[in-house]
């Protein structure tokens, strides 16, 4: 039972301060290194641990970078985009596009231990609790007889 997966696309302006080791991320893409067929956009391919981007937390792997310091990144070679980031200065303003997956139901077969959309514990714990309450009430009733 496969269902369609949709994406929520948002844009954000992120201003970063360059750290000792640079901005702290790698890119993929460009007109000469398309990561996605017929898409020469620049994407974040890796975030370096404890780098400026990692410490800031807003830019994520696979985000599309639309511009840097107001310069559009469309139709740039990969090396041109890398040079733009390298020479962008101490404070760098990035316009980015986040693509968040919105799941519309299961996209894979249910895992073991799940019943119709929920884990067994969500069903068994309330049933067990109710059984215990009924048993307690029955024992109290028998004591009164």
Task: Describe the overall structure.
It comes from Rhinolophus ferrumequinum (Greater horseshoe bat). One of its GO terms (biological process) is cell-cell adhesion. Keywords: Membrane, Mitochondrion, Mitochondrion outer membrane, Transmembrane, Transmembrane helix. Its main location: mitochondrion. InterPro entries: PDZ, PDZ_sf, Synaptic_Scaffolding_LAP-MAGUK. This protein is α+β, with helices and mostly antiparallel strands and 145 residues long. It folds into two domains: 99 residues, PDZ domain (Pdz3 Domain), CATH 2.30.42.10; 28 residues. 27% of the residues lie in helices and 33% in strands. It is built from three helices and eight strands; from the N terminus they run βββαββαβββα. The strands form two sheets. Strands 1, 2, 3, 4, 5 and 6 form a six-stranded antiparallel β-sheet that branches. It has a two-stranded antiparallel ribbon with strand order 7-8. A hairpin with a 2-residue loop joins β7 and β8. It is elongated, with a radius of gyration of 26 Å. About 6% of the residues have low confidence.
Shape: elongated
Show unreliable segments.
110-117
Look up the CATH topology of the largest domain.
Pdz3 Domain
Number of β-strand runs? 8
Put simply, the count of helices is: 3
How do the SSEs run, as a string of H and E?
EEEHEEHEEEH
Major sheet characteristics: 6 strands, antiparallel
Q: Specify the CATH architecture of the largest domain.
A: Roll
Instruction: Give the class from helix and strand content and strand pairing.
Output: alpha+beta
- Name of the CATH superfamily of the largest domain: PDZ domain
Pfam family, one: PDZ
Subcellular location: Mitochondrion outer membrane
GO molecular function: protein kinase binding
Protein name: Synaptojanin-2-binding protein
């Amino acid at each position: 039972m496969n269902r369609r997966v949709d994406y929520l696309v948002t844009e954000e302006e992120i201003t970063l301060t360059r750290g000792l080791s640079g901005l702290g991320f790698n890119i993929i893409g460009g007109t000469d290194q398309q990561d996605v067929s017929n898409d020469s956009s620049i994407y974040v391919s890796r975030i370096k641990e404890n780098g400026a981007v990692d410490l800031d937390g807003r830019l994520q792997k696979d985000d599309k970078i639309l511009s840097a310091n107001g310069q559009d990144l469309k139709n740039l070679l990969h090396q041109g985009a890398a040079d733009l980031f390298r020479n962008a200065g101490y404070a760098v303003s990035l316009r980015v596009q986040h693509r968040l997956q919105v799941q519309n139901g299961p996209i894979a077969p249910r895992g073991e231990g799940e019943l119709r959309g929920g884990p067994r514990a969500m069903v068994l714990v309330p049933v067990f609790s109710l059984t215990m309450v009924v048993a307690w009430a029955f024992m109290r009733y028998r004591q009164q007889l």
